[in-house]
TrEMBL record:
Residues 70-95 are annotated as: Disordered. Residues 4-67 form the UPF0033 domain. It comes from the Bacteria. Residues 70-88 have a biased composition (Low complexity). SUPFAM superfamilies: DsrEFH-like, SirA-like. InterPro entries: DsrEFH-like, Se_metab_YedF, Sulphur_relay_DsrE/F-like, TusA-like, TusA-like_sf. This is Selenium metabolism protein YedF. It comes from Desulfomicrobium apsheronum. It holds the Pfam family TusA.
Length: 209
């Protein structure tokens, strides 16, 4: 029988944390995780896969998602330490002593005063980030900043270029759900608060706006 984690009505990042605690204690042959939003489904699926679990099925029934996973061959299931940030970003391509700059965005405009000006400044900021070179590691967007990652936002092209250049782009899933923008995300990877915290932990420098 699979181990079942019912994470309905649990806020981010509780579903991922419950999976983490379970996998820290044991290696289940089969497990099922029940969540009530698409962001949590994405985050749980990605986390389990990063820990060597095979995602066998993801099913939506009404307002609930069920993620079914099973253990793989032990050698294929070698996983990163729990304190590390997601391992699909450009850090794998960097030398061990390379600096890691994290850009943490909390709004879709820069500064206070005029939103039109602030939007223009944010676009200029994103277009200038390539000047950081290989030290630019990751961009995390939370709250209103997730709007930058949507298909109709003028800034999305700058973000796509950065992602194509190897910069990890993480977009808060809870925020996308709150603004009802999940289906409009056009760049980056849906993320959760555990990724946000661990990314800040391992970054050498954080630029916050």
């Amino acid at each position: 029988m699979p181990i079942v984690l019912n994470c309905e009505n649990e806020p981010c990042p509780n579903p991922v944390l419950r999976c983490k605690r379970l996998l820290d204690e044991q290696t289940p042959k089969m497990m099922e995780v029940i969540v009530d939003n698409e962001a949590a489904m994405d985050n749980v699926s990605r986390y389990l896969a990063s820990k060597g679990m095979r995602i066998d099925e993801t099913r939506k029934d009404g307002t609930l998602w069920t993620i079914k996973a099973s253990s793989q061959d032990p050698q294929a299931a070698q996983a990163p330490q729990a304190s590390q940030a997601p391992q699909d970003g450009p850090e794998n391509a960097k030398s061990p002593d390379a600096s890691k700059i994290l850009v943490f965005l909390t709004a879709d405009t820069m500064g206070v005063g005029d939103d039109t000006l602030g939007s223009r400044l944010m676009g200029n900021f994103l277009n200038t980030l390539p000047e950081l070179g290989d030290t630019l590691w990751r961009i995390i967007m939370v709250n209103g900043a997730v709007k930058l990652a949507t298909a109709t936002n003028p800034a999305v092209e700058a973000l796509k270029k950065l992602e194509a250049a190897g910069v990890s782009i993480l977009v808060c899933g809870t925020c996308l759900e709150f603004f009802k923008l999940m289906d409009q995300k056009a760049v980056g990877q849906v993320t959760n608060m555990l990724d946000v915290v661990t990314s800040q932990q391992v970054a050498d420098k954080i630029i916050s706006l």
